[in-house]
Structure formats: structure tokens, C-alpha cells
Amino acid sequence: MRFLILLLTFLTAFSVPPLHATQSLPVSRVAHMQQRREQRRRARLARRFPSSSSSSLPTVLTVPTLSTIPAPPSTDPLPATDVRAAILLLGTTMPILGSIRIFPHEEPLDVRRISVDFLVAPLSVDSLLVYDGDRRFLGRAMFDASVSGNRRFTLRFANGTFVIPQREERSVYVRALLKERDAGGVSGEELRVYEFRIEGDGVWSNAEYVKPLTETFPTFQTARARFTSIANADALTGPISLGPSQRIASFRFTGERSDGSTELRVTSLTFQVSASSDITLSNAVVRGRDAVEDYGCTVGSTTITCSDIPASHGVIGDSSRVIELYADVMSTGTVSSPILQITLNNPGTVDTVGHITWTDGTTTFTWVPFEQPVVRGIRWK
After folding, report:
1. Number of CB atoms found within 10 A of residue 170's CB
2. Model's pTM, two decimal places?
């Protein structure tokens, strides 16, 4: 009995009362614990990126510029990495909006945020997919409601997730995941990045870095449908034929649609005529292949213009359609080797009118995202 009393006395003396949910640690102790965690984080990074001089302090971060999807894969699945203006199909992942290069001079940089500001608040952008120069997926930048104007998307990193070694360059680029039309995507919207913003901490000094980068990035435009190619539907060359109603060019228009309720349609074409001095064209008409009638065009000295092309000739359909150009072809016979070639030359830009006007059923577009000339037809000789 005496032994049990001694044992109970011993246990009572060394027992610790439980910490209930309503209790909390003293503020000084919490601050001390947070400080210790931060010291351990910095120590881990310092072991990964040892400093050649512990007294080295950062001065500036140089960031020169470069000119229905599930969770994104670990690497960029899209092949093209150039940055150029394009027509963007709603509900898809678009081409690269812009890219930057990060080069920390003085010490390793622990990147904490990458933000992208648009020139105008984008209605059709769901999120931005962020990749590094090795095409590795870094994360998804989401709409940032903490910044006024509804123009910013931000990707946040946990400590030590994206660390750039001292004097090593890393590039970063972004693609946009566009909303579908029924989810708020808008046809004809112009999208352009205004600024990238890099924020992080120096690994050795723990100093805060903030570097905005403002450049002139290309302008993109959203659509419910778009052309994927415009090609010559004839042979490269052929013998020239004289007389009335001669077929002088055939072009295949191929496209895609984002939803079944829209249509891709050509509404106006301006053809450039290259011909020897003895050739004269008149009575030009355009005809969508399988159409039962012709549609008249205007013949100029070096162009043939077909405006307000009706749907019976201009609708592309589910995939592609050939649009043909006919004219009366006459020759004076003064040139021994006459030639004739028709070209769709000027692609235009978002701000300038080109030689092809088209619609996705909602918006009229006056440009196509192709090189100049867009396409050359068969060379008759």
C-alpha cells in the first residue's frame, strides 16, 4: 500500500496537463517557432546554392524580354513556341502570349510569384498555363482579384519550388486556356499582354525582389471558328487557256469550329493578278465548288475583287471547301511566252484590312494569321 502511494505521488509530480483547443501558445513562443522554421528554410536553400561571399548583397534583377483540357501534362504538349499574332479558338489552349527571361545577378532567386497583366481585362481567358524554357509545366496562373481592373493572373509558388541559381538564365512563357462560348468566351475579343511581374526572395540575403517587365507583346483575337490553312488546289503550273469562262485559280480553305452552332464563311476576296502584258481578263466570277451558280466580281488593272460573297459560295462547311475563280482570258499574241498567276497576297493584321474577309457567324474578321503572300495559285504559261 505504501508503495502504491509513492508511485501515485511520483506520477502526479511529473504529469503535464493537455493543451486544449481553447488554449494557445504564448505570442513570443509562436514568433520564435516561425523564425526557426524560416531559418531552417533558408539553411536548406543555402546548402543547395552555397554563397561564394556571405556579405554579397543583391542590387538588381535583370529580366530582359524575348520577344476541354484536363490537368495539364508535366511538359508543354504543343509544338510551336514562337510568339506571333493569331486567331484564337474559344475553348482551346492558345499559342504563346508572351515570354521573358530571368537572370539573377547577385544571388539565387527563390521565385514566389509570376503575374501577367493584360492591356484590357480579358473576358475569354479562364487561366494561364505557365512553362519554363525546358517546356516544363510550372503551374496555372489564376485570376487575381486582389488587383483592381480585372487584368491580372498570378501563379504562386511555395518556398523553394522554383529557385534560379545565381547568374543562370531561366525563361518563362505562358499560354492561355480560353473559355468556351457557353462559359463566357466572347468572339472578336482582342487579347494582349501588357506586363509580366516577377516577385521573389534572395536566397542568401532574404531580400525581396520585385521586377515588372513592360513590352509590346502581339495582339490576338478570339473566334468561334478559324482557318487552319489556305492552299492552292491546283497543280503548281499548267498550260494557259484562252477564251471565255476559263478557270484561273482554285484555293482550298480549311478551318475548324469551336461549337456546332457556328459557321465559318468567306465574305470577301481580293485577288492579285500577275500577267504578261498581252493578257487581258474580264467578266470574272467566283464559285464555291458544288455551288450551282456564279457570283460576279469586279476586275481592276491588277486586282479582282469579290465582295459580299453569298453563303452558297462562301460557307466552308465541316472541314474545307474549294473556292474557284473564273474569267474570260484574252491575249493580243504579242508575247511569245504569256503567263498568268492569281495570288491572295495580303493577310492583314488585327488593325489593318487584308485581302480575305470572313466571319465566324458572330464577328467579321478582316485578317488571317498567315505569312505574306497567303497563297499563290497555279502559274499558267
Report:
1. 18
2. 0.80
List, for residues 27-53, the tens digit of each pLDDT value. Answer: 455 455 556 666 666 666 556 656 544
Residue ranges of the chain that CATH labels 2.60.40:
61-223, 225-380
CATH code of the region 225-380: 2.60.40
Grid-cell match 526557426, residue found? 36
Q: What are phi and psi of 33, to 5 degrees?
A: -65, -40
The topology under which CATH files domain 61-223 is: Immunoglobulin-like (2.60.40)
Q: Which of 187, 173, 189 is nearest to 129 (CA)?
A: 173
Phi, psi of 122 (to 5 degrees): -85, 130
Q: Can you read off the three cell numbers belonging to residue 114?
A: 509570376
Per-residue pLDDT reduced to its tens digit, 294-351 = 999 999 999 999 999 999 999 998 789 999 999 999 999 999 999 999 999 999 999 9
Cα of first residue to Cα of last residue in the chain, in angstroms, is 123
Question: Which residues is 251 bridged to in the sheet?
Answer: 232, 323
Q: How far apart are CA 191 and CA 169, in angstroms?
A: 28
